[in-house]
């Protein structure tokens, strides 16, 4: 009797286990409930909108001139993109030129000169431009490219009287590309005291190009490359004439172009540079000679000082 009861219990246990396995098997074979995921649009939008953007380098747009002449590949002097103003450093207060060299003195002109390219009426000091700061391999001597400059001023204008030695005159370029031909470049730091030690261009630094014309005396123009926010052609009065071994220029530049109210006895950063092209009909900047011996366009500390003499 006891043996029969044990057999019944074992059978009941196996039946229970079998029923459990069958139930589990059916559950596993059944279709599972779907898991919820947001749609891709919601995921991308919500996830990325709630994250801080990663820092990226600023890519600035290049100059887009309205007219591009045929250009020989050279390294330009013009700025190819804007440069943000840098923090300024106040220099020691000294009542002398700040760069440690002899300043260029601008004579006060009680009477404005006639802007016709005739320099005989000028009585201001003359300063040489013969330091080769670009294209020394193309420069063959002072007869190839060199010059002198006299500077004057009054309350309304900055004046320049320039004599250039140049054995071949050619100016096939214009607008933003006028430096790819015989031309003049003027650099002016209008706030020298504020950024005396600053080795980068800032918003108070100006780069102005002057074309004597194509041919000489025709289609004269002035183009401001920097600051980029003010870039474009400007009304500047220029008188030119041929002068034996080169050409002469008289230039009247309104101070308003530089956003300056001039002050007698004040110093400004300054450089005047001649671009030379000897390839007739080909736009190219072959060499540059400057008033500043170590002139670098983007480093105003390599320019010289301009002192506005008192009336």
How would you describe the overall organization of this protein?
- With 311 residues, this protein is an alpha+beta fold.
- The chain has a domain at 106-308: Immunoglobulin-like (Sandwich).
- The protein has two helices and 14 strands; from the N terminus they run ααββββββββββββββ.
- It has helices spanning 2-29, 40-49, and strands at residues 104-108, 127-129, 131-134, 145-153, 157-166, 183-189, 205-211, 221-226, 232-234, 237-242, 246-254, 267-276, 287-290, 304-308.
- Strands 1, 2, 3, 4, 5, 6, 7, 8, 9, 10, 11, 12, 13 and 14 form a 14-stranded mixed β-sheet that branches.
- Strand 8 and strand 9 form a beta hairpin.
- It is globular.
- It starts with a helix and ends with a strand.
- Mean pLDDT is 78; it is low at 1-5 and 20-96.
Please summarize what this structure is.
With 311 residues, the protein is an alpha+beta fold. The protein has a domain at 106-308: Immunoglobulin-like. Helices cover 12% and strands 28% of the residues.
Question: Topology, pairings included?
Answer:
Layout: H1 2-29, H2 40-49, E1 104-108, E2 127-129, E3 131-134, E4 145-153, E5 157-166, E6 183-189, E7 205-211, E8 221-226, E9 232-234, E10 237-242, E11 246-254, E12 267-276, E13 287-290, E14 304-308
Parallel strand pairs: 1-4, 1-14
Antiparallel strand pairs: 2-4, 3-13, 4-5, 5-11, 6-7, 6-12, 7-8, 8-9, 10-11, 12-13, 12-14
